[in-house]
Design brief:
The complex is a heterodimer of chains A (184) and B (378). Chain A has 184 residues and is an alpha/beta fold. Chain A has a single domain (3-183), classed as 3-Layer(aba) Sandwich (Pyruvate-ferredoxin Oxidoreductase, domain 3), CATH 3.40.920. In chain A, 42% of the residues lie in helices and 26% in strands. Chain A has 6 helices and 6 strands, in the order E-H-E-E-E-H-E-E-H-H-H-H. In chain A, a hairpin with a 7-residue loop joins strand 2 (34-41) and strand 3 (49-57). Chain A is globular and about 40 Å long. Chain B is 36% helix and 18% strand. The relative contact order of chain B is 0.12. Classes of the chains: A alpha/beta (184), B alpha/beta (378). At the A-B interface, helix 1 and strand 2 of A face strand 1, strand 8 and helix 10 of B.
């Protein structure tokens, strides 16, 4: 009996919704987990709140409540949304935060914290800040083991526009390797 | 088949669209409305490639009339809308029931009344689904609570519409239709796909509204060589307008009784922990997911809670409900309106208290939201 509640939050334009979709699609296609994915976003194209909620369970019945009540894994890509949604995160959660924008003192002491400069890595090592979300997913895969790198790559190939596939795949690789080093 | 091929990651609009395709939909007419538009868009990408016809009409009235016409031309026809558009279809729902046109209508419920909040969820169309049009007629309404059920029940909706020649409504809600879930897609023979009965007599002997023993008349469609008559006035077996008591009484009774007589293909519900339940919740749609969470957590603490979840809302399996309520001290109906399904449950259960827990929030209630409303009875 397993129920993971995953919250991914950031500002509009950071690819929060796509990250949630890719993670959900990869879980559905490459694992036996039951997956429920909902999104919330504000009307602005950029800058507003953006949130993906993913519930993963080993059976359909455990996926009863469709949203996150207390996240067991949280990803914060920007500081405003960290402050706004930190109450939705459980005390002993694993929290990944983009240290490009977030400093350790902003995080709860009880969390298992992992600060990674997703945005800076995307810009400097992959070539575009726009793929910070995929760098994050690569780290997520390496650190949590819930979804494989190959599963994420297949999901990217299935759903990202052809011109953007390669850079997203590269971002996943860079993130995954970063995650492996952090784990070690 | 590989696991990937038949597994989808779909919201309930897309899952219902896939269900319609599995059931053989080949005509769709609709008018865009939140939150049903992405079902329309999804089918618009897929149906033409499979030889189907999909049109955007000038409004919802034209949409439902188009699908009734297409159904009489032999198509498996459907539309999808939300409360405001469903209201516009009122007159033609009764027309479809009266001329016994097999059609499927998906109603993605949002808040009301009127235009309410377009982007917020609700369950206020329960009675609307049953009594939208004037006069007395039978109708079927099914309510999924997951994307998988949206897929499965859309197939069932087509099957019932075809088999009984009735309008069938799929009642979904905003939360459900915009949440993605794992869905396993199926193909015949794993899933049954039914089509309407055809005349078994030569054209000169055919009476278009003469029922078989199951109270459903075989349906010839345009172009098959049979005389087809589509009459919305009170009509006899020939389809002729007749103002006689016996004809009127038989027709009106049959339009409802054909559903009762064939209820074994309609009635559907799921029970959770009802065997020894002392507190029995009744809920449907996405709200039932939150209630199920309450029940499962209560059970883990030794509290005897149970959940009765009707899937066929109209008609509801009232015998099963009574049985599930046998050991209960209290029945609590949780729904996102101010008491609609409650009226049906309260009508059926006479020997113990039935309470209404109306949830009037704009987003899916958390289990805690619901518990707060129910605490005085627990």
């Amino acid at each position: 009996m397993v129920r993971h509640e995953i919250l991914i939050a950031g500002r509009g334009g950071q690819g929060i919704l796509l990250a949630g979709y890719i993670l959900g699609l990869a879980l559905v296609k490459s694992t036996d987990y039951y997956v429920v994915h909902s999104e919330a976003y504000s009307a602005e194209t950029r800058g507003g709140d953006s949130r993906s909620e993913i519930v993963i369970t080993t059976s359909e019945e455990e996926a009863d409540y469709m949203k996150v009540s207390k996240a067991s894994i949280a990803v914060f890509m920007y500081k405003e949304q960290l402050l706004k949604y930190k109450s939705k995160v459980s005390k002993d959660a694993l929290v990944l935060a983009d240290s490009t924008y977030i400093t350790e003192d902003m995080l709860e002491k009880t969390w298992k914290k992992l600060l990674v400069p997703f945005s800076r890595i995307a810009e400097e090592q992959v070539g575009s800040i726009r793929v910070a979300n995929m760098v994050m997913l690569g780290v997520f895969s390496a650190v949590t083991g819930l979804v494989s790198l190959d599963g994420l790559k297949a999901a990217v190939k299935e759903s990202v526009k052809p011109g953007w596939i390669d850079i997203n795949l590269k971002a996943l690789d860079v993130g995954y390797n970063t995650g492996l080093k952090l784990k070690a | 088949m590989s696991r990937e091929a038949d597994i989808g990651f779909l919201n309930s609009n897309h899952a219902a669209a896939e269900g319609a395709l599995t059931a053989g939909v080949n005509f769709y007419a609709g008018y865009p409305i939140t939150p049903a538009s992405d079902l329309f868009e999804y089918l618009a990408r897929k149906m033409p490639k499979q030889g189907g016809v999909i049109i955007q009409t000038e409004d919802e009235i034209a949409a439902i009339n188009a699908i009734i016409g297409a159904s009489w031309a032999g198509a498996k026809a459907m539309t999808a809308t939300s409360g405001p558009g469903f209201s516009l279809m009122a007159e033609s729902i009764g027309f479809a029931a009266m001329v016994e046109a097999p059609i499927v209508i998906i109603d993605d419920m949002r808040t009301g009344p009127s235009t309410g909040v377009a982007t917020a969820t609700g369950q206020g169309d329960v009675m609307q689904a049953r009594w939208l049009s004037h006069g007395h007629y039978g109708i079927v309404a099914l309510a999924p609570f997951s994307a998988q059920e949206a897929y499965d029940l859309t197939i069932k909706a087509f099957n019932i519409a075809e088999r009984l020649r009735v309008p069938v409504v799929l009642l979904m809600d905003y939360v459900l239709v915009h949440t993605r879930e794992k869905v396993r897609l199926k193909k015949p023979p794993e899933v049954e796909v039914w089509s309407r009965k055809k005349p078994r007599v030569p054209p000169e002997e055919y009476l278009p509204f003469k029922p078989d023993e199951d109270l459903v008349p075989p349906m010839a469609t345009y172009g098959e060589g049979y005389r087809v008559f589509v009459e919305s006035l009170v009509h006899d077996y020939r389809g002729y307008y007749v103002t006689r008591d016996d004809v009127y009484e038989e027709l009106v009774k049959r339009l409802s009784d054909k559903i009762t007589v064939n209820k074994h293909i309609v009635l559907d519900h799921v029970e959770y922990y009802t065997d020894d339940a002392e507190i029995l919740f009744v809920a449907f749609g996405s709200t039932a997911r939150s209630v199920l969470s309450i029940v499962r957590h209560a059970r883990a603490r030794g509290l005897k809670y149970g959940l009765f979840r009707p899937i066929s809302i109209w008609p509801m399996d009232t015998d099963a409900l009574l049985k599930a309520a046998e050991n209960a001290r209290k029945i609590i109906v949780v729904e996102m309106n101010y008491g609609q399904l409650f009226l049906e449950v309260d009508r059926v259960i006479k020997d113990k208290p039935v309470y209404l827990a109306p949830i009037l929030t704009l987003d899916l209630p958390t289990p805690e939201n619901i518990l707060e409303v129910c605490r005085k009875w627990l």
